[in-house]
RNA sequence: UCCCUGAUAGCUCAGUUGGUAGAGCAAGCGGCUGUUAACCGCUGGGUCGUAGGUUCGAGUCCUACUCGGGGAG
């Protein structure tokens, strides 16, 4: 496993925990810090493969729970695995279904064995255990599998956080024992809510189990961003420096830079695609709500220097597409946002290489907080 | 010429036995963080066709008129 998956640190910042690395997998390398678009059902919604590649994405996500319900991991395997099935030839990371235990909690019963779901599609019972999650992910054939974890919403009383955290460690061990495929790396997930000492304990115990990568989970589930940043700071020092660190489900552009500043290497989030479909475009000047009337006759692109296909059109045109409910509107804004996120992490990588990341960080946060651009 | 029927928000329409009006869509704005989301939420907006009458009180009842739809001759 160590030979197939390597993580090389090219440079670590002197002034912060930011670091520039390369994560290598049998299906290609990933320049870090990296942002991974979310492709829950074997597609990054509304974005074709070449476009996704052109946006700069190197690794994408898939989801164990969703794909096992539809079309089913056996079907994906029969069609050649998730890569052949979807057409994405680069690295794929599959989430374990742990987040769905949380987000579909009304339909799930959780105990030490695992979680029993009612399918959100047809109400059928789904039995998701650590072993089953690994078996599904091996059938899907992703390059990185995630351990099944127990996520709790925040804020939450310490007792429940602690219980879920220790259970997550035991489930991580069971996932590790169940994993068979040497071509698939298994990442562990640190839980512990907003309790710094629980975060530390979890990080240390998982580190002792020696995983090829570590994720920080259970954040951006209701807590203010400052608390999320504090939890990253409480966790990162207790993770092995030579392994990639993945902040799950995060986040807004400012969250990404705050994560990088604190030593995170990998990010994923639905925000660029979902918010894009919902008519919000990201930019260096903050969000652009393209439905707003002020863009009706705005001939400028979303961003002047963006190479994405959406930025070959005017804001007025993009607004028209949304008001007319044309599917191209959501597609173009999703593509723009993915491109924006990729350009953001690319700039961050360059800045780390040049030893100027902290300045880049301050300039960007300042630009977003000013929140407006020069008048037309 | 007569009879019937309709006129309520920008649009299509609800409005119980009379107690000064609602919905959907549209519009404006906001939210979205390991996707149950091309989704969800909030807001604005109407001298109830016009003029009279009955009534304590009329979008609701009566009369006339205007405009639209249907029918008879």
How would you describe this structure to a colleague?
With 376 residues, the protein is of the alpha/beta class. 40% of the residues lie in helices and 18% in strands. It has 14 helices and 16 strands. A hairpin with a 4-residue loop joins strand 7 (108-110) and strand 8. Helix 6 (130-140) packs across helix 7 (158-178) and helix 7 (158-178) runs parallel beside helix 8 (196-208). The termini are far apart. It binds one RNA strand of 73 nucleotides through residues 36, 38, 40-41, 45-46, 61, 63, 66, 93, 95-96, 98-100, 102-104, 107, 120-121, 146, 149, 151, 189, 215, 217-221, 228, 246-252, 255, 268-271, 273-280, 289, 291-293, 322, 325, 327, 329-331, 334.
Task: Produce a short descriptive summary.
The chain is an alpha/beta fold and 376 residues long. Helices cover 40% and strands 18% of the residues.
How many H/I helices? 14
- Helix/strand/pairing class, anyone? alpha/beta
Low-pLDDT runs of 5+ residues are none
Spatial strand order of the main sheet: 4-14-13-12-11-10-6-5
For the sheet with most strands, the description reads: 8 strands, parallel
Total beta strand runs: 16
Percentage of β-strand residues: 15-25%
Give the N-terminus to C-terminus distance in angstroms: 55 Å
The radius of gyration is 20 Å
Q: What is the residue-averaged pLDDT?
A: 96
């Amino acid at each position: 496993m160590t030979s197939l998956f390597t993580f090389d640190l090219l440079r670590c910042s002197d002034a912060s925990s930011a670091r520039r690395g390369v994560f290598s997998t049998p299906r290609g390398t990933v320049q870090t810090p990296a942002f991974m678009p979310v492709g829950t059902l074997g597609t990054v919604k509304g974005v074709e493969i070449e476009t996704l590649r052109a946006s700069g994405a190197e690794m994408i996500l898939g989801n164990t729970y969703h794909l096992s319900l539809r079309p089913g991991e056996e079907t994906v395997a029969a069609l050649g695995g998730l890569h052949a099935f979807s057409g994405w030839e680069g690295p794929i990371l599959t989430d374990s279904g742990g987040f769905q235990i949380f987000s579909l909690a009304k339909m799930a019963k959780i105990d030490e064995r695992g979680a029993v779901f009612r399918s959100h599609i047809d109400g059928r019972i789904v039995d998701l255990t650590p072993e089953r999650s690994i078996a599904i992910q091996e059938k899907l054939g992703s390059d990185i599998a995630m351990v099944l974890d127990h996520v709790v919403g925040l804020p939450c009383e310490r007792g429940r956080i602690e219980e879920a955290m220790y259970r997550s460690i035991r489930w991580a061990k069971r996932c590790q024992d169940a994993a068979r495929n040497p071509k698939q790396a298994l990442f562990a997930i640190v839980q512990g809510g907003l309790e710094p000492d629980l975060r530390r304990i979890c990080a240390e115990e998982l580190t002792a189990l020696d995983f090829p990568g570590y994720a920080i989970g259970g954040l951006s589930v209701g807590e203010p961003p400052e608390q999320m940043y504090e939890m990253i700071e409480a966790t990162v020092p207790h993770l092995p420096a030579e392994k990639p660190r993945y902040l799950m489900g995060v986040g807004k552009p400012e969250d990404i830079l705050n994560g990088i500043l604190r030593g995170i290497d990998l990010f994923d989030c639905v925000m660029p695609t979902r918010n894009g479909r919902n008519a919000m475009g990201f930019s260096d000047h903050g969000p652009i709500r393209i439905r707003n009337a002020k863009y009706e006759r705005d001939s400028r692109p979303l961003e002047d220097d963006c190479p994405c296909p959406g930025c070959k059109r005017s804001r007025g045109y993009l607004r028209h597409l949304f008001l007319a409910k044309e599917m191209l509107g959501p597609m173009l804004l999703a593509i723009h946002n993915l491109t924006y996120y990729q350009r953001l992490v690319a700039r961050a990588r360059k800045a780390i290489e040049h030893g100027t990341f902290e300045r880049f960080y301050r300039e960007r946060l300042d630009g977003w907080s000013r929140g407006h651009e020069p008048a037309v």
